[in-house]
């Protein structure tokens, strides 16, 4: 079972609970966990580090069974990111909400946190259930709010990372600048080879 670990109900100016635990922040945490859990045998330490980076506090002593359950949840969540259209994302989320989450409830974790919604069955739900329920909640709100898929899989053929596509600026196709740059360079080289067949200079 998960150990209850939440920051104080009265946040400081530099550690604002509502910012660290906003819907967008929780969706980005979901994407980061889906990525780190994509490995065949995810390192519990690496998974714990992602949790720390996204606001979870100690203790974070994940067992191999915890990670295995989280990996199964991450595989289900990837279907939402892989949906190419808002209808597909909504269909995937509806299936997960129906099959894997409890009823919507509010909790303050015994006064240790502000009131906020949960979809797992109780405050001590296992890590896998927590990941799936909290991620479904955040991704559902993003679909509702923006009426488009909440995220996508990186368009680079050599990368399978998922990312949250919603935000300011043009719609993203790549998970990072590194992937975008790599694909631009590859496209340039392909066009150059077509335009100058047999040219081995440069």
What's a quick, concise take on this entry?
The protein has 202 residues and is mostly helical. 50% of the residues lie in helices and 6% in strands. It has helices at 17-20, 23-36, 44-53, 64-82, 86-100, 127-146, 177-195, and strands at residues 105-107, 116-118, 151-153, 162-164.
List keywords for this structure.
6% strand; mainly alpha; globular; two-stranded antiparallel ribbon; 7 helices; 202 residues; two-stranded antiparallel sheet; single chain
**Rg, nearest Å:** 19 Å
Share of helical residues: 40-55%
**What is the H/E string?**
HHHHHEEHEEH
Beta-strand level of the residues, as a percent range? 5-15%
Average per-residue pLDDT, rounded, comes to 86
Question: How are the strands ordered across the major sheet?
Answer: 1-2
Give the overall form.
Answer: globular
Count of distinct strands:
4
Low-confidence stretches: 3-14
Largest sheet: 2 strands, antiparallel
List the total number of helices. 7
Task: Describe the protein.
This protein has helices at 17-20, 23-36, 44-53, 64-82, 86-100, 127-146, 177-195; strands spanning 105-107, 116-118, 151-153, 162-164. A hairpin with an 8-residue loop joins strand 3 (151-153) and strand 4 (162-164). Helices cover 50% and strands 6% of the residues. The protein has 202 residues and is mostly helical. The strands form two sheets. A two-stranded antiparallel sheet has the order 1-2. The protein has a two-stranded antiparallel sheet with strand order 3-4. Residues 3-14 have low confidence and may be disordered.
């Amino acid at each position: 079972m998960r150990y209850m670990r939440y920051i104080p109900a009265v946040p400081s100016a530099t550690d604002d609970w509502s910012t660290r635990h906003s819907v967008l922040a929780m969706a980005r945490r979901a994407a980061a966990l889906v990525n780190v859990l994509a490995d065949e045998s995810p390192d519990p330490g690496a998974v714990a580090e992602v949790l720390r980076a996204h606001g979870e506090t100690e203790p974070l002593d994940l067992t191999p069974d915890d990670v295995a359950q989280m990996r199964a949840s991450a595989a289900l969540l990837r279907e939402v990111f892989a949906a190419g259209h808002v209808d597909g994302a909504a269909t995937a989320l509806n299936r997960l909400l129906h099959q894997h989450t409890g009823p919507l409830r509010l909790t303050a974790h015994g006064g240790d946190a502000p009131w906020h919604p949960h979809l797992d069955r109780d405050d001590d739900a296992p890590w896998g259930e927590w990941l799936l329920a909290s991620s479904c909640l955040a991704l559902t709100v993003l679909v509702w709010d923006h009426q488009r898929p909440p995220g996508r899989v990186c368009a680079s053929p050599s990368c399978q990372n998922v990312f949250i596509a919603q935000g300011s600026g043009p719609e993203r196709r790549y998970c990072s600048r590194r992937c975008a740059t790599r694909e631009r360079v590859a496209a340039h080289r392909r066009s150059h080879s077509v335009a100058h067949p047999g040219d081995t200079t440069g």
